[in-house]
Backbone:
């Protein structure tokens, strides 16, 4: 039957999974989900995923939510010797640590995007920007210790974090104070698997810029 | 030197680490961090963990932040055959999935704890409470699908979640009417797990402080 991913392209965690699937050379079927239209709240969807979130992976009888659990599963199951998620406990722990750090990045991003998407509340959206930039500053400090997010080569940590950091860039947020992050972003963009991120991040960037500009103008 | 854990007793993520270390019989050195005095912002601490959070772990040259990365590391390294973190990819993924759910639970837990304990804002507490309740509703659903949080056996997912739930129960925020399964699961684990004592001091302390603060602010 193969892999199925329930997702929408703009969503950063969905893109994290797309990038990983491409990096591993895995085929999958994409089922488009419109959260605003209630696609994640139908009885059928809730049975597969009571968390009513995207992305969701279907692999035979297994239904798996949580993008980073999906990515680590894909390596463990289909490419267990891959450098993307090393087996050595110390190296793996560093990747895991950065994956959980990435949860914070995504949460901070959502605090900017959700008020815009669902409430048109530009004040609350703008007020959430410093918290995201704080976390990006922390990532800058992390990159002082290693060339990539979790060591000296590309891992799942880079593939997850890039979905969020590329979004911050596409939104036009101020990344002038984080040269290591910008250099890292340029490196990750060169990877063939990054292509899976492009359409969605462009979409989200445009949506944010147009939406926020319009609301700020209205507020004047 | 062995494994060193930097943290505080009250913090739920720190207690997850204490629980897991005790569960696998791992000795470690505990360093209490004076967070109020800025203990996570010193140059020494930031060198260990630029994210300035607790828990932080040191094991030789390895420095780790993020409680869930720490607990999975401890099992992978020191108890790789433990049932707490199964090796089968699909079974492990189910545990990982719930560990990530726990990250959301932690955010929502902080959403009510911070206003009550630090900013003393009853309004902020009331605004954020529904989000915590939603996380609890999801956990209630999960416990209807399997005996424990990620399946039939106790895993790291149970321990990560347990430290939040025990605190909420002590704080009086885990109504049995709405969350009977969670309450039953909590009672069972409290008596069943031989290592549960590692959670008690911090849970009682933090839960008690939350309960008291809520009473004061509501008066």
Residues:
């Amino acid at each position: 039957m193969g892999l199925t991913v329930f997702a929408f392209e703009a969503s950063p965690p969905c893109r994290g999974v797309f990038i990983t699937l491409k990096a591993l050379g895995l085929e999958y079927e994409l089922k488009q989900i419109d959260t605003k239209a209630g696609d994640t709240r139908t009885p059928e969807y809730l049975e597969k995923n009571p968390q009513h979130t995207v992305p969701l992976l279907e692999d035979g009888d297994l239904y798996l939510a949580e993008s980073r659990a999906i990515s680590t599963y894909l390596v463990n199951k289909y490419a267990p010797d891959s450098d993307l998620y090393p087996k050595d406990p110390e190296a793996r722990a560093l990747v895991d640590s950065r994956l959980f750090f990435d949860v914070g990045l995504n949460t901070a991003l959502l605090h900017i995007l959700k008020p815009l998407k669902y409430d048109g509340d530009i004040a609350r959206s703008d007020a959430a920007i410093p918290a995201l930039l704080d976390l990006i500053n922390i990532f800058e400090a992390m990159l002082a210790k290693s060339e990539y997010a979790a060591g000296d080569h590309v891992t799942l940590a880079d593939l997850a974090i890039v979905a969020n950091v590329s979004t911050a860039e596409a939104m036009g947020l101020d990344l002038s104070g984080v040269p290591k992050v910008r250099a890292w972003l340029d490196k990750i963009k060169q990877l063939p698997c990054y292509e899976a991120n492009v359409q969605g991040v462009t979409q989200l960037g445009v949506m944010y810029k147009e939406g926020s500009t319009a609301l700020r103008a209205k507020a004047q | 030197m062995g494994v060193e854990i930097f943290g505080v007793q009250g913090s739920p993520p720190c207690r997850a680490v204490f629980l897991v270390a005790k569960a696998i019989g791992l000795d470690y050195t505990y360093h209490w961090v004076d967070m109020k005095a800025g203990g996570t912002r010193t140059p020494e601490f930031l060198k260990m963990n630029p994210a300035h959070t607790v828990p932080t772990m040191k094991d030789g040259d390895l420095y780790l932040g993020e409680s869930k990365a720490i607990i999975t590391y401890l099992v992978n390294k020191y108890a790789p055959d433990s049932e707490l973190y199964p090796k089968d990819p699909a079974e492990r993924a189910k545990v990982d999935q719930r560990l990530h759910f726990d990250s959301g639970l932690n955010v929502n837990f902080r959403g009510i704890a911070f206003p009550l304990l630090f900013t003393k804002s009853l309004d902020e507490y009331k605004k954020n409470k529904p989000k915590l309740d939603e996380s609890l509703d999801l956990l209630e659903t999960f416990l209807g699908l399997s005996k424990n949080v990620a399946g039939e056996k106790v895993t790291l997912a149970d321990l990560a979640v347990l430290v939040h739930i025990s605190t909420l129960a002590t704080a009086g925020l885990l109504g049995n009417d709405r969350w009977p399964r969670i309450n039953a699961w909590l009672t069972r684990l409290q008596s069943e797990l031989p290592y549960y004592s590692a959670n008690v001091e911090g849970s009682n302390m933090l839960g008690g402080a939350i309960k008291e603060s809520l009473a004061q602010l509501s008066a």
Notes: The first helix of chain A runs from residue 12 to 24. Strands of chain A lie at 3-7, 28-32, 56-59, 62-65.
